[in-house]
Amino acid sequence: MMRANTVPARFPHLRQDFAASLVVFLVAVPLCLGVAVASGVPAELGLVTGIVGGLVTGLMRGSSIQVSGPAAGMTVLVFEAVTEFGVAALGVIVLLAGLVQIALGALRWGRWFRAISVSVVEGMLAGIGLVIIAGQVYAAAGVEAPASGLGKIAGLPGAIVEVAGSRTALVSLAVGAGTIAVVVLWQRLPERVRAVPGALAAVVLATAATQLLGLPIATVEVDGLLGAVQPIGLDAFGRLGDVALLGTALAFALIASAESLFSAAAVDRLHDGPRTRYDQELIAQGTGNAVCGVLGALPMTAVIVRSSANVQAGAKTKASRVLHGVWLLLFAALLPATLGLIPLAALAGILVHAGWKLIPFRAVASLWRAHRGEALILVVTAVAIVAVNMFEGVLIGLALSVAKAAWDASHIRLTVVDKGVGPVQAHLSGNATFLRLPKILDTLEALPHDRPVELDLSGLHHLDHACRTALENWSERHSTLLTAPPKPAEPSTL
């Protein structure tokens, strides 16, 4: 009896974690494969990243519930990197990104990622979603897509004409559309049926239909797990002098970190267990990416779809995400031939649906009603990612966010009291920065020039150098009595 009770005593939530791990595994399989194919690398590498996310990152401290693996949010950046540097260089880029993440976590910078504007992050995801949708429409039809995000969208009318004249392309597009329809309609079926993830059901049905009907459409190319894994060699490190490659690695690290930590914040709201320790989670993500880099696999992030499925399935500890990595490993090792039966159009359909879910339609509507400036940042970030590229688009969004914060912080009020006789009294209060200087000077210049002016700055909380200099110069020219603001207090230690 004592031996029978040992396992439940040491692992009191094993039953819930075991069941949750199976659900997460079934959710992860089609997404791992789809993200890999869309990134321009062998499908097996998506499974490798999922395995590392479970067996390496899953064992480490940080967030006990969220699940890591290849993410649709990194697809665009990875595809651009593979196109520019080749698949052989991907391992070095991912390894460097992982080392940067480990360093950031060790320096306790994880918490600072929480300060990134939510509008920028949602704009980033929206831009990625748009590029994914546009690109995967071509993949679903089995035609070649333009390289740039803007080219993908602009080329859609021509692609429609091309598809309309090809029976094979129409059949392939129909399989992709059918996959999307199954995923969407699956949520309306009875709860017992929905125990099987909709994405997995859609891929299985599409595969069965393709094989039974003998449809002439492309399927996943299979090299086997060991054949797909290409550990980085010493010659690959010779490219470390390439500034563009180093910049790409930094972009991988920053964007993967932001996505992972925002996912952690979202997952923490879904359960009552231990909260995420952001610095440790950043180190865990970096360690996983370093291992993926050594194996030449895709980068990983924490993935909100798999993480929320893990919570909803009743997971209590990290055992569920570790076990999901075990199931991925067994699947890749024992059933590799099944991958070759999956139509590429079905995986494209899964990613079109995933890309659609990345676009925060409700957030844009609510922001427009309450905070139009934030809504504008979201839209501009998304458009910049589509028009330029992901990294520069995010930088544009961050620059706009900083500029808006500076503008919002520059609240200034100029009160003029003119009693008809005696000096005109002008009182400034708030924060006087160079952003508001033109408005301040225009108002002061409009005051009567034939009467003395008393300019009171004592109500200012902040007066930057540009404003101080301009106001002193104006005061000297107009013989104004200037009351200086009080000296700032000594900063307090928090």
Automatic annotation (TrEMBL):
InterPro entries for this protein: SLC26A/SulP_dom (IPR011547), SLC26A/SulP_fam (IPR001902)
Keyword field contains Membrane: yes
Localization (cell): Membrane
Keywords from the named record: Membrane, Transmembrane, Transmembrane helix
Domain SLC26A/SulP transporter, residue spans: 14-381
TM helices/strands, residue ranges: 85-107, 119-141, 169-186, 198-218, 243-267, 326-356, 376-403
Topological type in the membrane: Multi-pass membrane protein
Keyword Membrane: yes
Domain of life: Bacteria
PANTHER family xref list: SULFATE TRANSPORTER
Protein name as it appears in the record: Sulfate transporter
